[in-house]
UniProtKB/TrEMBL annotation:
This is Uncharacterized protein. It holds the Pfam family PP2. InterPro entries: PP2-like (IPR025886), PP2-like/Lectin (IPR052147). The lineage of its organism: Eukaryota, Viridiplantae, Streptophyta, Embryophyta, Tracheophyta. It comes from Hevea brasiliensis (Para rubber tree).
Length: 184
């Protein structure tokens, strides 16, 4: 089956679902997505534990980001229909986050969890205490290969249930894109 090449209009980023998501096509004609914070499930996200701020994404477009005020139970979940992705491609999911100068409570590692439609679950732990402050960074949740005709959802989580209070984390969203190949 021959896939049609994406037009210039299809390649340019498009905001979807009231700026909760952005879609674009990369140079290799593969679908890419950004799920902004409002499209994620953030435990206590509707309470005073999180503050929602506008952030200039591109040009004149503003999107909402979530800033953690204080919480002892960090639980951020996203899910996405795998059928929206290009088949036969190795994808990666990364959370885009930023620590404030006053961030604290990050001594314990956070768990990044990837759940695939076939039931496979992968987890890894990352210590963010020593990550740069006041700069957007990417936390790689994991990689997976899409298959032609595959259905179901890929789920991706950030978890830290250590019971101590944390603060000073911005969550911009999660990026789903073809895995970047690096050569050395």
């Amino acid at each position: 089956m021959k896939l049609k090449k994406a037009t210039a209009e299809e390649k340019s980023p498009k905001f979807l679902q009231h700026k909760r998501m952005k879609k674009w096509v990369d140079k290799s004609d593969h679908n890419c997505f950004m799920l902004f914070a409002r499209s994620l499930y953030i435990t206590w996200g509707g309470h005073e534990n999180w503050v929602w701020n506008c952030f200039k994404e591109t040009g004149d477009e503003n999107v909402e980001v979530a800033k953690l005020s204080h919480v002892c139970w960090l639980d951020v979940k996203g899910k996405f229909s795998i059928s929206e992705l290009s088949p036969g491609i190795a994808y990666e999911i990364v959370y885009e986050v930023k620590l404030t100068n006053g961030a604290s409570g990050w001594e314990l590692p956070i768990t990044l969890k990837l759940s695939l439609p076939n039931g496979e679950v992968r987890e890894r732990q990352v210590v963010i205490l020593e990550k740069p402050r006041k700069k957007w960074i990417e936390l790689n949740v994991g990689n997976f290969l899409t298959k032609q005709g595959e259905t179901g959802e890929v789920c991706f989580d950030i978890i830290e249930h250590g019971g101590h209070w944390k603060k000073g984390l911005f969550i911009k969203g999660a990026i789903i894109r073809p895995k970047m190949i690096t050569t050395q």
